[in-house]
Prior knowledge:
The structure holds two protein chains of two kinds. By secondary structure, chain A is of the alpha+beta class.
Amino acid sequence: MSEQRLHLRVNGQAYELTIPADRFLLDVLRDDLELLGTKEACDEGECGACTVLVDGRAVDSCIFLALQADGADVRTVEGLAVAGQLDPLQRAFIDEGAVQCGYCTAGMLMSAKALLDENPDPDESQIRAALEGNLCRCTGYDAIIRAVKAASGGRS
Amino acid sequence: MSAVIAVPQVGLIGQSTVRRDGVAKVTGQFAYGVDVRLPGMLHAKIRRSDIPHGLLRRVDVSRALALPGVRAVITGDELPEYRASRYIRDELILAKGSVRYKGEPIAVVAADDPEIAAEAVRLIDVEYEPLPVLSDPEQAAQPGAPLIHPEWQTYWANPVLRRDGNILNHTTLLRGDVEEAFAQARHVFEDEYDTQIVHQASLEGHVAIASVDLEGRVHVVSSHQFPYGLRQDIADILHLPLGRIHVTASGLGGGFGAKLYASVEPLCVLLAERTGRPVKIELSREEELAATSPRMAARVHLRTGVDSDGHLLVRQGVIYYDAGAYSLSSPGTSAVGTLMLPGPYRWQALQIDSYSVYTNKTNCGSYRAPGGPQATFAGESQIDRIARELGFDPIEFRDRNAVENGDLGPAGQVLTGVSLRKTLQVAKERSRWPQAQDRPSRPGVRRGRGVACNWWTTTSGASAAVIKLNDDGSIVLSVGATEIGTGAVSAGLVQICAHEMGVAVESVQIVSADTDATPYDFGAQGSRTTFQNGQAIIRAARDLRQQIFALVAPGLDCETDELEVHDGHVYRRDGTGRAVPLAEVARLGQTVGGLLGRGSFTAPPTPYDPSTVKGHTYPAFNSPSFHTHVAEVEVDTETGEVTLTGYHVAQDVGFALNPLYAAGQVTGGATQGIGYALMEEVQYRDGTVLNPNFTDYKLPTIRDVPTIDVALVEEPSEAGPYGMKGVGEPAVVAPAAAIANAVYDAVGVRIRSLPITAEKVLQALRSRELEG
Ligand code: FES
Ligand code: FES
């Protein structure tokens, strides 16, 4: 497999790497950049644990070729808190009991972030639609829905 | 929406304090097993059997060994008899001579990176001589069935078990005169039920890292629920001195019972010893779903006799649990079925025979409330049928037969802290039973509502705690308990410690789950962590308070029993004298070598009647809890599709130490039960798993589960801290029956096999039409 240059920004930091063309973004993040917050649970685009934002769009990084992110702005769970201040979503996930084992949490947060960036005041069915691709085996989802509502602009 | 039927409490207990690991988990800093990376670490992969049953004719690893980057290859043939499992030593950690399920480990490879290890695994040639495949536990249990373990009599086994050929354990529960009771019965109901294999599917699978230090000590970090049990397993399996093994639990991305026994760890240890390098094994999702320890399938034959007034008289049941190819926890789990099949009702006579049986499938194991969901699906489906056919309201019928304090449990335990009627009442109110239901959302759809009840245990087992007072008055709590994700350790135990020591939760640091650094704990299993460790902490805190008071009393001119501690200070109870900060006490304590409180706890065993059981490893439920679930469904009569539109749980938790996280366990457990009811199944055909991935193994998504209405009922236990009972497991038990009963209410057909798919419902509707 041919090696290729990859330029990307992750959480505001610029990186330049040489990678095989078939390398997935998840492996670049976890293995090359040692950003371990993004998780893998199925490796085939079915669980959402590996969700990151690529130019603001939520993608499953386990099936997203890293080269597709060339030149893009990537945001991972490590980039959610700004200057030590938790994002309101992070705070709400803790306060509402939306975190149990936490293995789905990075992906949930990034999917929810993409939703709120686009629609600051989603109703419950919009939240369910946006998080449909994110599996959680622990919580049963109610707490996650409450957390997204609590972090959103309104109280719908 | 959730509500607590609350007993008011003072202090930190009963409050929803926030978990300690929350910030690390939402910022991506929390280290799970998959995140552990050691310098020089090798990656290992397992060569697994391609067939479900056969003789191993040849295992040729020469091509794998020749691959650059491969550091070691180990096969079963080079190993002594390294055998696993706690009930029956029937499983070699690497097969030799034969394989008994598809996916059984045959060889293991360590290499510089995971890709090389995977390639090497592909290069290992294996030749087999296939043998017949046994898939059905009931058939495999029959006399004359081919034996999956022809040498079964040579295995070491727990002496309580009643084994015979393919039967790992035959448990019998017999109480009263069964024949006489059936003779008295006015109505007798007879049914057969089938449940499927389902997987824990924790999002993080099995992963472990082993290394060996210069002194020859073995260090294992594993995503594991029971570090002390794992240490014992490794010592037993590899014949190593216990003291040479050091186990720590990494952060866990879920477990639900899947991570209670040694799995990949002994292989990691052998490879680390062989290569002198740290070795990591991380299973893929396919390996998880096809070759780790899911919940057993079961077939249940059930016969129940009822008198003319709607009183249950007698129940006779036979359960065949499908253990898969090796024992793991199955012989104990199948025994639990004998306590669950009768349900929380009064009986004159009971006869339950429960078998765990070998088949050529992956070893089944423990999954949340092991043994319970299968039996309760059968038992509560039939109770519903009886109620309906005798013209009773299903809640009223259960209430009429419910156990009360002082009644006998199935094996003769005297029941205390009984709350079934209370949970029935609460569930009834919250579901507005039996008022008219909402109209169906569209034409062609029928609505229905179903109820199911169960009881469950709080597993005992030892826990110990050490509490250290730091010089600044802060506290270090050391427990062997493992934070599996529930919040039991990171919130519950911290909360209890802070409450008992009179400090803020922020003042308590916690060290846990390390066999070198922390005291014993029986593991994150059986809904026991907060219950057992909580009592140990209460005792350790009492010990430490005594030491503190002994140092302070002379200065305050009083006896130790006139002192109390809160807000980080020691006070005289009568309000006189000065408040002594804990920091000052700690510095005084340095002169006597520091202040350290110790406590341990094992819940006293619950007495039962030994004459009622044979082959039983779990004959009584400790501090039992009681539960009522109500499911509301819509069934599409054209497609058979079942949609869950509402769900209510009334769960007795004894005392809600932390209502937010207690409710979280109920919601999460019920959701797994909903998956069991409607969609999940590890599908086997002739020993091959057809759906070892999340595309085809369907877990409930956020679209499948409605808001779950949780009511925490508090009927205190005698043995638990502040009256607590175990919380984590039981909500997974009742949903399948509640939903099946709701489907019946909606469209009048009984689905007796799980999962309740659209096809099954449609087929049942069609055959009813044909019968017309
Ligand atoms: S790991 Fe990427 S979707 Fe599951
Ligand atoms: S919190 Fe464990 S998978 Fe969601």
